[in-house]
Amino acid sequence: MTAVYLTSPGYLLGEIEQDHYEIPGFAARARECGMQPDARLWGWGKVRRTEKSLEELVVDTGKTITDSADVDFLVLCSTRFPGDAHTHGGFMERIMNGLGLDCAFLGLTLNRCTNLVSGLGVAEAFVRTGKYRNVLVITADRSTTETARIENFALFSDGAAGCLVTARPGDYEILGSASAQDTQALDWGNEISADLSREVNDILLAPRGLAPGDLAGLLHNNLYVPIVVMKERLAGFSLAQLDTANTARIGHCFAADPLINLADRRTEPGGYYLLAASVPGSRTAMLLRKTPPRP
């Protein structure tokens, strides 16, 4: 089986920055969710919004990641693709032309905020089996309305992120990916599950003789800080492995958070890192090892 690498992680945030309290209806929505008005407690800070279309977010992000000549497949992820079967052809035509690509593609959406990590797993499988050598993976999302930015688990920002999954040696070796589901808990009203996170840890780490404490870092969703800390600690991770700084800096960029947090992190050669995302009823993760510098 071919070795697989993740390289050139990058992202693009909405061009308009605003404080959380400037979001229309913020105070009323916080009260509705029963949240104390304490920004430090939740990690409330700033959010980003964009006036760009989803196509523009995808194209602008993809151009920063790789030369289109290197790409032989595209995995495109989004929580909500605009339009329907009548318009998706034109939507993808604009994206492919904008990126300068002439290759096959796959759209991934039903995995919600695990879309990106799930898409990375698809790309890994394609490259590891030799079907493709260079797969561009991009996720992009924007809030439908300003009031929709506020949920009882996160503040949403517009943005996109992506990377190249390739057979060529790159920034990180992909050691594996895994997911776990509880199909009875997929409804939006349920909580994310530490049990599913432990199940994924067992699949990815145990066969390699690793435990959660052996990881140099966990790159997780930018949910409210108390939620992330509680759930990831229950899954076996330590506070030192978590990085919640981006929660206040940029908010929750849908599925893009793990890759944004990886791109922002100073990583150690030889260190193990876990890209991980949870939604109610599902946990998806990818285990990476930072490649040493080339001589």
Gyration radius, in Å: 18 Å
Number of helices: 9
Extended strand count = 11
Low-pLDDT sequence parts: none
Which word captures the global form?
A: globular
Give the overall pLDDT as a whole number: 96
- For the biggest β-sheet, the strand order reads 5-4-6-7-1-8-11-10-9
Helix content: 25-40%
Largest sheet: 9 strands, mixed
Strand-and-helix sequence, N→C? Answer: EEHHEHEHEHEEEHEHHHEE
Structural class: alpha/beta
CA-to-CA gap between the ends? 25 Å
Strand content: 15-25%
Helix and strand topology:
Elements: E1 5-13, E2 16-19, H1 26-32, H2 39-42, E3 46-49, H3 54-65, E4 73-77, H4 88-99, E5 104-108, H5 115-128, E6 134-141, E7 159-166, E8 172-181, H6 194-204, E9 217-219, H7 225-234, H8 245-250, H9 257-264, E10 272-279, E11 282-290
Parallel strand pairs: 4-5, 4-6, 9-10
Antiparallel strand pairs: 1-7, 1-8, 2-3, 6-7, 8-11, 10-11
Helix pairs in contact: 3-4, 6-7
What descriptive keywords fit this protein?
single chain; 295 residues; alpha/beta; 9-stranded mixed sheet; two-stranded antiparallel sheet; 9 helices
Structural notes for this entry:
With 295 residues, the protein is α/β, with parallel strands linked by helices. The protein contains 9 helices and 11 strands. A 9-stranded mixed beta sheet has the order 5-4-6-7-1-8-11-10-9, sandwiched between helices.
Compose a concise summary of this entry.
The protein is an alpha/beta fold. It contains nine helices and eleven strands. Strand 4, helix 4 and strand 5 form a beta-alpha-beta unit.
